[in-house]
């Protein structure tokens, strides 16, 4: 493990260790005297959890710019993960040009990306996790994967998630749950689960009673649960329960047509019953939840359900470097979220004694591909997976002067290309593209390859459409999606970002109620949207039924081929009301 | 038409799940098109007594799913499901408790 | 209101006959007023003769926060009251809000599940009529989205 020099390393560690907010982190305990000890954290307690989530099938190291806007309001105002950019650096006492600052924020992103290189990559992750496991004791370590693992790359789509099933088998994941996993067909999902070496757990997915009566099968006929809700694992001398919580709004945010028999939901009552049952029957030393709820939903679940020690969460792709305590009726549950795209491994060490978690250490550990050598076996496997498609995948489609990214509450630059492409290629007045949180970054000066394009569009319902939409309906769509993002009740938040728009600007006041947030809709010409006029709208990724147009990557590939070079990209972001001092937005990165 | 049922007895409680094939069309009264056609009365009898008595409307989903439980049942007993819709059509089915 | 009268509303004799003889003529050949009411409160008034209700935890309503499918929203109604007479489900956002009424019989456990249609985001109310004719109500909002973009 080399290219980080000692000086840099000491600097990184001192910067991270300086902050009191990292009180429960291993980093204060780093042994920095020995150069071979990069990533060797001082072991703590007697049970270790490795947590990866939302890798979105990124087998290779990637660039992923963290958001410059992730707004929180009311009780979540200024609370993680609604602290971004310079606010984040200040909050956690991290320097902008440190490795931690690079990994966890959008600040000085391009320059830092050139200095610190790509992050993640399964061959690098494998080296790190094998090390962390071996170092602590294999029999005392569990590797949890929070889902969104089978989707997000070209090869995951081509192999229907199978490349990732094999990849996490090789990685040595022990327990997992899902979200985009459910965008394959039911039969494919069940086949893939069968091929997993890990336990797939989900307490909140049920086979619909109607389906059961028509002969559908459930994991448990009595409860109707479609999957094993939890699993007991031996960790050294202790027994630990790991409960699964799949993405509760899968059948709302993603198509139902692939999984018509299954019903989802947050199911907090069922979760409470299950926790109580496990506590009584299994007498576990700790109860852990591997969750795909999203950060704010996890926090509310930690409040309303008691008896859970830790929620290891994902979905909202938040890199939060601390385990946040949430009080509930019977004690405290800590909430963790370990970022996305293979950028981080969450390392959680517990000190368990007398059936209680006495203390813990948590570190959100960035996976720097330049520091960690590749695991040869994983490297070979990734090459094998990509080989049949390699020419197509590495084909440059265009070059860019702009940093391309997606993540953030509103339009990212890669979304802008998709929106521009939809409008131009399909001759539409307005375009819309979903506010997904996956999608990797491309640095200025780099080529946009087919791989990059697929990292932003790869999915099982990529079909495009054009349709005539009334001005009033445009408003309704924006209001509906804004409410999924900004509803005051976290249980009503679905965890995606705002729908991206092309040729359509608007003003948004996120703190208002549904129907009142969006005003001042206008075309890019400045012309006001007329509620009664018909506009031609282009888009993709329809949840209800399949659209008839070509997959969106074909639309964007054509656009990129026509333009060859992306420059002076004009980012269409709405005017946002009342966020001047909100630490959930890095205003220095927004010119207007 | 058709009634599917799963009816199981545990101790002396029978849990009954029914799936009734019916369009439950709201027609114009529900803001839709076509004629209204929906079940407006459904009962289940055990021996001589009514153990479930429901007055649905077209606000109940297509092919209604119904679940309920009642006390005082034995394995092997018969229950009778009967429904009638707003057009006067009806169906009756005997189901053995398992 | 007397048990088994309210649905008949003027067809009391027929109603009793209908319930006693499974398969006899429907009391719904003439739509009772309550089922045709166009507001939740009007339905309540037509059905029970009052809109005066007690808001407590005696009526229990289980519904999702967000509907997966507005055409089939799973609902479970129940009550902890002994000898309750009727339970009525009202969907305020529907053109005709009165959705279902159950009459309770001895031996039946007052906990029923079914699926309902919801046209738009709105409140669902469960009204439980207790042994003394008092109405207990609980309300829950269900969101019906036009399509999400999660991920």
At CATH level 2, the architecture of the largest domain in chain A is: 4-Layer Sandwich
Given this structure, which CATH class of chain B is correct? Answer: Mainly Beta
Oligomer: heterotrimer
Question: Which structural class best describes the helix and strand composition of chain B?
Answer: mainly beta
* Number of domains as seen in the coordinates of chain A: 2
Largest interface: B-C, 40 and 39 residues
Mean pLDDT of chain A equals 93
How would you write the strand order of the largest sheet of chain A?
4-3-2-1-13-14
Task: Give the percentage of residues in beta strands of chain A.
Answer: 15-25%
How many helix segments of chain A? Answer: 18
CATH superfamily of chain B: Immunoglobulins
Report the order of strands and helices of chain B. EEEEEEE
Class by helix and strand content of chain A? alpha/beta
Question: What is the rounded Rg of chain B?
Answer: 14 Å
In DSSP terms (H or I, runs of 4 or more residues), the helix count of chain B works out at: 0
Structure write-up:
The complex is a heterotrimer of chains A (592), B (98) and C (151). Chain A folds into 2 domains: 43-62 and 118-381, 4-Layer Sandwich (Purple Acid Phosphatase, chain A, domain 2), CATH 3.60.21.10; 394-589, Alpha-Beta Complex (5'-nucleotidase,  domain 2). In chain A, 29% of the residues lie in helices and 21% in strands. In chain A, strands 4-3-2-1-13-14 form a 6-stranded mixed sheet. In chain A, strands 6-7-9-10-12-11 form a 6-stranded mixed sheet, covered by helices on one side. Chain A has a 4-stranded mixed sheet with strand order 18-22-16-19, with helices on both faces. In chain A, helix 7 runs antiparallel to helix 13 (376-386), helix 15 (413-426) packs across helix 18 and helix 16 runs antiparallel to helix 18. Chain A is globular and about 70 Å long. The two termini of chain A are 44 Å apart. By secondary structure, chain B is mainly beta. Helices cover 0% and strands 55% of the residues of chain B. The radius of gyration of chain B is 14 Å and the shape is elongated. The model of chain B has no long low-confidence stretch (mean pLDDT 92). Chain C has a single domain (12-142), classed as SoxY domain (Immunoglobulin-like, Sandwich), CATH 2.60.40.2470. Chain C is built from 3 helices and 8 strands. The termini of chain C are far apart. The chains are: A alpha/beta (592), B mainly beta (98), C alpha+beta (151). The B-C interface holds B 13, 26, 29-31, 40-41, 43, 45-46, 49-62, 64-72, 80, 82, 84, 86, 88, 90, 92 and C 7, 18-19, 22-23, 26-29, 35-36, 71-73, 76, 91, 94-96, 98-109, 111-117, 119.
């Amino acid at each position: 493990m080399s290219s980080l020099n000692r000086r840099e390393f000491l600097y990184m560690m001192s910067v991270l260790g300086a902050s009191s907010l990292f009180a429960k982190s291993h980093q204060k305990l780093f042994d920095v005297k020995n150069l071979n000890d990069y990533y060797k954290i001082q072991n703590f307690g007697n049970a270790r959890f490795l947590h990866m989530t939302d890798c979105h099938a990124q087998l290779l190291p990637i660039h992923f710019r963290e958001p410059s806007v992730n707004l929180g309001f009311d009780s979540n105002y200024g609370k993680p993960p609604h602290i971004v950019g310079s606010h984040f650096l200040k909050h956690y006492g991290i320097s902008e040009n440190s490795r931690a600052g690079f990994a966890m924020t959008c600040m000085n992103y391009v320059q830092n990306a050139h200095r610190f290189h790509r992050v993640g990559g399964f061959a690098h992750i494998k080296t790190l996790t094998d090390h962390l496991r071996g170092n602590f004791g294999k029999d005392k370590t569990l590797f949890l994967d929070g889902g969104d693992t089978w989707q997000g790359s070209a090869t995951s789509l081509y192999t229907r998630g199978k490349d990732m099933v094999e990849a996490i088998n090789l990685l040595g994941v022990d327990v997992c749950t899902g979200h985009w996993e459910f965008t394959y067909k039911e039969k494919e999902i069940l086949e893939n689960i069968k091929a997993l070496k890990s336990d797939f757990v989900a307490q909140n997915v049920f086979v619909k009673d109607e389906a059961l009566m028509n002969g559908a099968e459930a994991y448990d006929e009595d409860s109707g649960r479609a999957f094993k809700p939890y699993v007991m694992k031996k960790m050294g001398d202790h027994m630990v329960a790991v409960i699964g919580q799949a993405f509760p709004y899968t059948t709302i945010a993603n198509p139902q047509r692939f999984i018509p028999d299954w019903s989802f939901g947050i199911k907090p009552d069922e979760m409470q019953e299950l926790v109580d049952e496990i506590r009584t029957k299994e007498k576990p030393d700790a109860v852990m939840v591997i969750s795909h709820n999203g950060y704010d939903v996890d926090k509310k679940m930690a409040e309303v359900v008691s008896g859970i020690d830790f929620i290891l969460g994902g979905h909202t792709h938040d890199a939060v470097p601390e385990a946040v305590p949430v009080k509930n009726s019977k004690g405290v549950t800590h909430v963790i979220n370990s970022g996305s795209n293979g950028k981080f491994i969450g390392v959680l060490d517990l000190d368990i004694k007398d059936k209680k978690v006495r203390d813990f250490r948590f570190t959100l550990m960035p996976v720097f591909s330049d520091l960690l050598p590749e695991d040869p076996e994983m490297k070979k496997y990734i090459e094998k997976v990509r080989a049949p498609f390699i020419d197509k995948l590495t084909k440059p489609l265009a070059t860019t002067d702009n940093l391309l990214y997606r993540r953030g509450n509103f339009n990212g630059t890669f979304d802008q290309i998709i929106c521009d492409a939809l409008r131009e290629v399909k001759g539409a007045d307005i375009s819309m593209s979903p506010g997904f949180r996956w999608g990797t970054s491309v640095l200025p000066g780099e080529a946009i390859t087919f791989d990059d394009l697929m990292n932003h569009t790869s999915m099982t319902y990529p079909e495009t459409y054009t349709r005539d939409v009334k001005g009033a309906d445009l408003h309704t769509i924006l209001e509906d999606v804004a409410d999924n993002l900004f509803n005051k009740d976290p249980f009503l938040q679905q965890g995606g970002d705002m729908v991206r728009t092309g040729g359509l600007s608007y003003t948004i006041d996120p703190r208002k109620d549904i129907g009142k947030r969006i005003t001042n809709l206008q075309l890019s010409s400045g012309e006001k949207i007329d509620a009664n006029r018909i506009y031609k709208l282009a888009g993709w990724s329809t949840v209800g039924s399949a659209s008839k147009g070509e997959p969106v990557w074909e639309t964007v590939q054509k656009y990129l081929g026509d333009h060859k070079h992306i420059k002076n990209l004009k980012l269409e972001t709405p005017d946002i009301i009342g966020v001047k001092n909100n630490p959930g937005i890095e205003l220095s990165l927004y010119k207007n | 038409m058709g009634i599917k049922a799963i009816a199981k007895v545990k101790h002396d409680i029978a849990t009954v799940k029914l799936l009734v094939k019916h369009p439950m069309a709201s027609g114009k009264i529900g803001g839709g098109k076509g004629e209204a056609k929906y079940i407006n009365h459904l009962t289940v009898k055990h021996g001589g007594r009514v153990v479930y008595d429901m007055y649905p409307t077209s606000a109940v989903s297509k092919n209604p799913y119904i679940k309920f439980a009642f006390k005082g049942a034995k394995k092997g007993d018969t229950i009778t499901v009967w429904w009638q819709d707003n057009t006067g059509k009806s169906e009756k089915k005997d189901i053995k408790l398992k | 209101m007397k048990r088994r009268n309210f649905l008949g509303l003027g067809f009391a004799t027929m109603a009793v006959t209908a319930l006693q003889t499974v398969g006899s003529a429907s009391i719904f050949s003439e739509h009772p007023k309550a089922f045709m009411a166009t507001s939740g409160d009007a339905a309540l008034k037509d059905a029970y003769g009052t809109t005066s209700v007690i808001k407590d935890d005696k009526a229990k309503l289980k519904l999702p926060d967000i509907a997966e499918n507005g055409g089939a929203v799973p609902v479970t109604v129940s009550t902890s009251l002994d000898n309750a007479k009727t339970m009525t489900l009202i969907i305020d956002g529907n053109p005709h809000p009165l959705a279902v009424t159950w009459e309770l019989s001895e031996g039946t456990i007052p906990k029923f599940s079914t699926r309902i249609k919801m046209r738009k985001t709105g409140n669902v109310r469960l009204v439980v009529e207790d042994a003394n004719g008092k109405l207990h109500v609980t309300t829950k909002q269900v969101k019906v989205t036009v399509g999400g973009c999660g991920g």
